[in-house]
């Protein structure tokens, strides 16, 4: 599970957290699979306390559940949960888009430009996991720029489990990732969001989410309902 991970430095629990998180997202660790601290400590060559620290972070993400006699087990994002998370995410991001459209974006520009540059590098390296992390960072940075930081944890949670549903699905067409140019897409989206027109910005974020879902996970897109992405928020 640690193969191909970058040399992150810092705490070993960070590396283990990323390794386990990636394994869960790509179904190398399956739903309801038990994760034993002693076994993982032997596998990673560390203390059980280090493993416990990583598992607690995964529990906070909702990727595992730690409970009594059943120990720690991998959770699953169901279609029904993914649908509701898409609806919640869409509602949040529409509000963010409307605020971004007329906000002073100058103090956030460098940070978001940096995320987009990292997206380009991850795309060159065909690193789908890192791209998904950067996608969530991009959208949460927009929430911060819109002065809606309190919604960032909810947005991050929804985006993580939507990505989990998508990345673990057999529907994912690998060629789309190779051809998409995620940095180009998000650069174009940023230009539309900062256009000065809240209605246009809201349409842009709605179209972006609809496009991503219809391309990567058609079943989820259809379950949410294409019409959900078409109507502007009522004012």
Search tags:
235 residues; mainly alpha; three-stranded antiparallel β-sheet; 11 helices
How would you describe this structure to a colleague?
This protein is mainly alpha-helical and 235 residues long. Helix content is 67%, strand content 4%. The protein has eleven helices and three strands, in the order αβααββαααααααα. It has helices spanning 12-25, 37-44, 48-61, 79-102, 106-124, 128-145, 152-167, 174-180, 182-193, 198-216, 218-224; strands at residues 34-35, 64-67, 71-74. Strands 1-3-2 form a three-stranded antiparallel β-sheet. Helix 10 (198-216) packs across helix 11. The chain is globular and about 55 Å long.
Q: How would you summarize what this structure contains?
A:
With 235 residues, this protein is mainly α. It is built from 11 helices and 3 strands, in the order αβααββαααααααα.
State the helicity in percent bands.
Answer: 55-70%
Strand content: under 5%
List unreliable stretches of 5+ residues. none
User: Would you list the SSEs in sequence order as H and E?
Assistant: HEHHEEHHHHHHHH
Mean pLDDT: 89
Rg: 18 Å
Largest sheet: 3 strands, antiparallel
- Shape call: globular
- Count of beta strands: 3
Kindly report the spatial arrangement of strands forming the biggest sheet.
Answer: 1-3-2
Q: What is the end-to-end distance?
A: 48 Å
The number of distinct helices, counting runs of at least 4 residues, comes to 11
Please identify the structural class as seen in this structure. Answer: mainly alpha
